[in-house]
Design goal:
The chain is α/β, with parallel strands linked by helices and 754 residues long. It is built from 28 helices and 22 strands.
Length: 754
């Protein structure tokens, strides 16, 4: 006999419980249980539950008893079990647990609780099983959120709620989902998640405080107060409870202001009082805006004026700051400090000239004079962002023309300028491209109801093509229209919207995916996404998109819209689709203008997005936000290089096959960059077909007082401190032709292609 000593066998017997099906009884009286894996006339091999295998000689065996596998036994018992037998389900669950059939055990324990909700033993056995599976998912989500990857963290959290909603981790999963939503400023959705978490676990203190913070950010003061009050009994200490109580009282006061309604909304004393409460809550920016409202309503207390002078100067609203300094000096004309601050603010007016001049030497002189005043970097940057004031222009319907930047084609347009247009403040801009057979003038009537609200400038270019439709050669028209509008009007470049119908929609798609940093949102109506622009689609990560299509539109239009929506939604991008039923004579669908206007008003470009995608092979489209490709790799697709496709001997490819292969060559050679701002003052880059790129940085992205690390394709390509530079700030703004796309530091890095 070839076997282990009897003591070792006895130890194994303790580990091999009822889950073993076959039994080998030895002449010594010992019993082995497990699964017989091999037997012959001379010996028997048996595998025990812990994976060990024993070989026993036939001469030592008294009897071999073939058993039934636990799973087979389970199936027989399950088939005989009545569905409404709670005790039977619990007994079968216990059998499953004894035989390590955990998935089956969970199903029967759940059924037991469905039939008898107060079954204490079933609950006690089920919860650890579920937690054992849910906890790794929860820990994975925590790690991702700690790295700032809030979207990626949603998948494991949703898996917990779908697969283990009755685990003790479900409340924490809702809480973590709420944390991710709040981090992305989706406060209403976050509050809903926190309510669900608290419904499952009313003693989850972090959920009360998180929901209170989100409600405060959304100016839902009554809700914020209620959540804060609920957190007080769960406070960690007496001091913590005292702080929560004081905060709840302040929030209740704001709720009372809010309930007072519009009747007192123009009362300067009430607005100033509200601002003081906001200061108490630590919401300084919101408080300063409320102080500004109080000032506009007539408040002139020196305390308010000084706060607003600092605030407007820091935010770059230099003329407003100077108006306030004028009022302060009227009361104290000999105040030396105020006189000095006003003089320094006046020098900030030169920032606009520094941005506008193409003469670098003159720009450097202007910046030197500004820096000599001791103006803070933030104040100069703010003044740069707000230096878009223009001369007054004619309002109402205005006709004009511009030349495209690259091809110098002359493009005519019709613009609508609001009757109350004030060139001292920035205005949103909507660029709308017509369909085939129309002109900009005709397309205006599709937007007339939006123009009537008088809250945005609208510009309607007319295709220079003879057929009245847009072609790929007109790709520069949308960006050239934007540049022309910014020369004439005070445009808020963070609120520039692009829209198009038919061929105009196809051109809007093409421009938006190649220049995603130019547009705050995109509206495409009854248009296809062309095959080459489809290869750029990943770059639309920062462009919220509203897709509208008639159900009666041509199949290729409907199919393209659905495909684009599915792709964008699958990547987690901000996309909305509306299919309009029935027959419609006007493919522009102006009846949706109310929805479109409300959607556009909710979209504002972030010049410092935490994530940027670049997909291009074109040098003209090789930058977006804080990234610029400096050199493509030799493997990148080059449109000037001939693509040689050889067919097998004796065969010829069809035009369709050649077309598909050509698109495949472009896709394979696309220059790609996926960039993200990560915790720890780090920038993560993943690149393909790229050799060198420039990363622009600002304090709104990272802390430039500390070392910055840049990781490209898993390798550190830079680590160190970067100095803020006024020259860099203005160079980046001039490069983008947009004073709000300005970055105070930059570093050029080499990357190793993936």
């Amino acid at each position: 006999m070839s076997m282990r000593p009897p003591l070792a066998i006895l130890a194994l017997l303790a580990l091999t419980a009822a889950s073993r099906a076959d039994t080998v009884r030895l002449k010594t009286g010992h019993v082995l249980e497990g699964r017989i894996t091999e037997e012959n006339p001379r010996e028997v091999r048996i595998r025990t539950a812990n994976g060990s295998e024993l070989t026993v000689a036939r001469a030592e065996i008294a009897e071999v008893e073939r058993g039934e596998a636990p799973l087979d036994t389970y199936k027989k018992r399950a088939a005989e079990l009545k569905d409404d037998d709670a005790d039977g389900h619990f007994a079968l669950a216990e059998f499953c647990l004894q035989n390590r059939l955990f998935t089956e055990a969970i199903a029967h324990l759940r059924r037991t609780l469905e039939l008898r909700k107060d079954h204490k033993e079933a609950r006690e056995k089920l919860t650890p099983l579920l937690d054992q599976r849910a906890l790794p998912l929860l820990n994975q989500a925590k790690r991702l959120q700690d790295q700032g990857q809030f979207e990626e963290a949603e998948a494991p959290l949703i898996a917990i709620l779908e697969q283990y909603p009755d685990s003790s981790c479900a409340a924490l999963a809702h809480h973590r989902l709420a944390v991710g939503l709040a981090a992305r400023k989706r406060y209403d959705m976050a509050i809903t998640r926190w309510r669900r978490a608290l419904a499952l676990d009313p003693r989850l203190a972090d959920a009360y405080e998180g929901a209170a913070h989100a409600a405060a950010e959304a100016a839902r003061w009554a809700d914020a107060a209620a959540f804060t009050e609920s957190a007080i009994p769960l406070a960690k200490s007496t001091d913590h409870a005292r702080g929560l109580k004081e905060r709840a009282e302040a929030l209740r006061e704001l709720a009372r202001f809010q309930e007072a309604g519009e009747g007192s909304a123009r009362d300067p004393k009430r607005l100033a009082a509200e601002a003081r409460v906001l200061i108490q809550l630590g919401q300084r920016d919101r408080a300063l805006l409320r102080y500004q409202d109080a000032y506009n309503a007539g408040a002139r207390e020196p305390e308010i004026l000084k706060l607003l002078a600092d605030y407007n100067e820091r935010e770059g609203r230099v003329r407003q700051a100077l108006e306030i300094y004028k009022e302060l000096l009227a009361a104290n004309p000999s105040d030396a400090e105020l006189l000095k601050r006003r003089a320094n603010a006046e020098r900030l007016l030169a920032v606009g000239a520094a941005f506008a001049t193409p003469d670098k030497a003159r720009r450097d002189r202007i910046l030197f004079d500004i820096a000599r005043t001791g103006a803070s970097f933030d104040a100069i940057e703010g003044a740069l962002r707000e230096c878009t004031e223009r001369a007054p222009e004619k309002t109402g319907l205005v006709e004009g023309s511009f030349f495209t930047d690259a091809t110098l084609q002359r493009v005519t347009y019709l613009a609508y300028v609001p009757k109350l247009y004030d060139p001292r403040r920035p205005w949103p801009l909507i660029i709308a491209l017509h369909r085939d057979g129309e002109s900009g003038k005709e397309h205006y009537y599709n937007w007339e109801t939006i123009a009537a609200n008088d809250d945005a400038i609208l510009l309607f270019p007319t295709s220079p093509g003879k057929a009245g439709g847009w072609k790929f050669m007109h790709l520069g028209v949308p960006t050239s229209a934007l540049h022309h509008a910014t020369r004439l009007y005070n445009i808020d470049t963070n609120r520039v919207y692009l829209a198009g119908v038919g061929s105009g929609g196809m051109l809007a798609w093409a421009a938006a995916v190649r220049h995603p940093h130019r547009f705050a949102a995109l509206v495409v109506t009854n248009a296809v996404l062309d095959e080459v622009s489809r290869l750029h689609l990943r770059a639309a990560a920062t462009v919220p998109t509203y897709l509208i299509v008639s159900e009666q539109a041509p199949p290729d239009v409907v199919g393209s819209t659905r495909e684009a929506h599915k792709a964008l939604e699958g990547w987690g991008y901000d996309v909305q689709k509306e299919e309009v039923p029935g027959y419609t004579r006007n493919p522009a669908l102006p009846e949706l203008n109310t929805k479109v206007r409300a959607w556009l008003q909710s979209k504002v470009r972030n010049p410092y997005p935490p994530r940027v995608r670049l997909m291009t092979y074109e040098p003209a489209a090789a930058s977006a936000f804080w990234l610029r490709i400096e050199r493509f790799a030799p493997s990148a697709y080059d449109p000037d290089r001939r693509v040689a496709i050889r067919s097998p001997f004796g065969q010829e490819y069809s035009p369709e096959q050649l077309h598909t292969m050509f698109l495949g060559e472009i896709a394979k050679g696309m220059g790609q960059v996926a960039a993200a701002i990560a915790p720890g003052n780090r920038i993560d880059l993943v690149t393909r077909n790229i050799e060198e790129l420039t990363v622009f940085l600002d304090d709104k992205m990272v802390d430039l007082d500390k070392p910055v690390r840049i990781i490209a394709n898993g390798e550190a390509v830079f680590s160190g401190k970067l100095e803020r530079s006024l020259e860099q700030l203005f160079d980046s703004a001039r490069y983008h032709r947009d004073p709000r796309l300005c970055y105070s530091a930059a570093i050029r890095v080499k990357v190793r292609d993936r």
